[in-house]
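Moderator note: this is an archived Q&A kept for reference. The question asked for a predicted structure of one protein chain; the sequence and the answer are reproduced below.
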Amino acid sequence: MIQKPDQDFATAPSDVAQRAHAVTQEQGVCYIGIDLGTSRCAISSSNGSRESVGSVVGWPRDTVSHKMFGDQPLFGDSALEHRLSLDVVYPLADGNLRFPGLGGSDRDDARKAASELLKHLIDLARPRTDQLRYAVIGAPSKATKENKQAIIDVAQETGLDGVMVVSEPFSVAYGIEALDDAIVIDIGAGTIDLCRLHGTLPEDDDEITLHKAGNHVDAELARLIEVKYPHAQFNLNMIKKAKERFSGAIEAASDRAVVRFPVNGKPTDLDITDQMQQAVGMIIPEILQAIQTLVSSFDPEFQHRIRSNVVVSGGGSQIYGLRKALETGMQEIGGGNVVIVEEPVFAGANGALKLAREMPQRYWEKLR
């Protein structure tokens, strides 16, 4: 099953790094860090490859689309661009693989899509054919044992030689070395994951997963726009693009979020500024409540330390005004300091790669 490093790993990273480097030199290992996200995945590999792709897989639907695209599946933006010609599958929901607990063809389709997506991510890492392939995969903080095992099972189908599943905010923390007296928050499409770090591996009480995340914001934004503009025509993919374009660009009262959506088939400019701010603001109270839970349940002598070191990553970290909103809300629990990571798309994958490169061989789940 999924194993965790012992105290030797936590206290002697330099020694571990030397051993990992020696293994790499002797055997030829490509280490891969993977952020397996509901909306987007990212990889960083030890050979320098870094890629991001949407978490969606599509197969040609009929003979015409097969003639256009061939036998291989399409991924990410390419699958979405041609989705009217494809059978499209989203293999992840709420940060987890969709197929555990499902039955029938839905389960089969989701598992097939998950396997193909993970294979694609490994291909993007560009390992040499003569290299072993070891991957650390980030999952939600409160992912079930069933889902973690499902990730390992899928990984076994992809050509990986070793795998480890860790919580996404922990991989972010490991990458930026925020392993002591910190709270790391990863805001994704399916989940918002919080992890309290205090110089040891996080335990269950150190982690919180919230399920009202980016996808919830998209659904609420769509509802608000429909109320304001009942004849506007749009889909959730258009809503997501609008959110990503404008949520980090509204800096003053004069800035407006204006989109061009069809209204009864006619392209029309619609001001959705108020709806955007209301929708993205919905996630703030629950994040603040989760921060308070992690602070109040911590040793009272050191609570001020973790309040002063809150780190936010993930696509949702780019929401304009997020840092200010969190710091303002934290005034009610004694104040705090919030930092947004420099590379929100790759922070999780970078941390997973760093962990992979420093992980002793005995802790890997061997797949061959």
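Archived answer notes: The radius of gyration is 21 Å.
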